[in-house]
Amino acid sequence: MSGASLEILIDRSGSWFRAAAVENGVLTDLHCDRDSLATWTDAVVRGRVIRRGGGGAGKHVDVGLERPGYLEVGSGAKDPAALPALSEGRSFLFQVRADPSGQGRKGVTLSRDLVLAGRFLAYVPHGQGIQISRRISAAAVRAGLKARLLAESPALGAQTLSPSASAGAGGGGWAGGWIVRAAARVATPEQIDAEACWLRHRWRRLAEAADGPPGVLLPPPDAVERLLRDTAGRPLSRLWLTASVMDKVRARLVDGAPDLVPRLEIAEATLFERHDLEGQFAALFAEWVSLSGGGSLVISPTEALVAVDVNAGPQGNPAAVNREAATALVRQLRLRNLAGMVVVDFLTLPGRPERVALERHLAAAAASDPAGVQIYGFTAMGLLELTRRRRGPSLATLAV
């Protein structure tokens, strides 16, 4: 958004802990936590292998939660030699990839591919070298960014060359690898160095605690951490928060984003009334979404998929209504944190060229979604299929 003024607003309202990003008065990003519902996605846990899964398809792991976690076969590190064999009775480090499913009948889904994410970098303890985000598609830009980071950020280069001290946690002698996020293009060398050191320190603390009883060693990222990742690289004008969350937010920034600490400003208790955020927040629980041209979206999440219907309203141009609906849909999926399979019944279009144009418009609108949207195209019945990567519970699930 050209000339956009980005503000971050963080508050607590009852049992809701909310972090929002607003550009020119419009809510663009929203992350929420709820006291009554815990999510474990991305938490790092110490688990003890207790038995093989049904049919020998995986491993059940005691991670200190109500139900054992499940590790699927083939979910080992990209460099399998870097990790010791999963012997029953031994303790290992795992990362939670998905919350319990099947209405609580199954435990969390686990992985041995640990990834510790920051705003500009992600540290992969069992990886090697430097990988550039796939969101940077131009080869020349990718190569130039990698060369610049190695030249300007000593901590990043040094960490990929020195031996790892975490062999006991499965380090295998490697120093680990890095994933450079797209936001790193606008980060300063000081920001990159500070984050690289912070992530490596975080991993060392985890590796040192690899042996012991099952339990959570690193809690999942909270709403503030998730929002800062999603907005990294966008020029920030103000960072508002209420006094009730100041200590929590400041502690989070001192660790992972010290450059933002001077931006903190305490606002009045009714922080989400700025830009009518309370109204925009409440609208995210409605099934109907009005479009400016008179049309509407009807968004119906089910257990299997998210069904979306596009209504024309009084506007007579199906192509124009579909374009506006596609843009609005991308925004709603992101704000409501809807994921998995999404099936959209757009207004009928006359032929394939118009469908291709709509798919391209939808892809462009979804390009900035950090969750990643994959568009599969129209079915024989004229429904458009897409998927969005799951990132914890949806907003509607948190409200239950």
Which keywords apply here?
five-stranded mixed β-sheet; 26% helix; single chain; six-stranded mixed β-sheet; alpha+beta; 400 residues
Major sheet size, sense and barrel closure: 6 strands, mixed
Order of helices and strands: EEEEEEEEEEEHHEHEHEHEHEEEHEHEEH
How many alpha or pi helices? 9
Give, in spatial order, the strands making up the sheet with the most strands: 16-17-18-19-21-20
Question: How would you concisely characterize the structure shown here?
Answer:
The protein is an alpha+beta fold and 400 residues long. The protein is built from nine helices and 21 strands.
Provide structural commentary.
There is one protein chain. This protein is α+β, with helices and mostly antiparallel strands and 400 residues long. The chain has helices at 139-152, 154-159, 189-208, 223-231, 246-256, 277-283, 318-336, 352-366, 395-399, and strands at 6-13, 16-23, 26-34, 44-52, 58-62, 69-72, 91-98, 109-111, 116-117, 121-124, 130-132, 177-180, 215-218, 236-241, 264-266, 288-290, 296-301, 306-311, 340-345, 373-378, 384-388. Strands 16-17-18-19-21-20 form a 6-stranded mixed sheet, covered by helices on one side. A 5-stranded mixed sheet has the order 3-2-1-14-15. Helix 7 packs parallel to helix 8. The model is unreliable at 159-174 (pLDDT under 50).
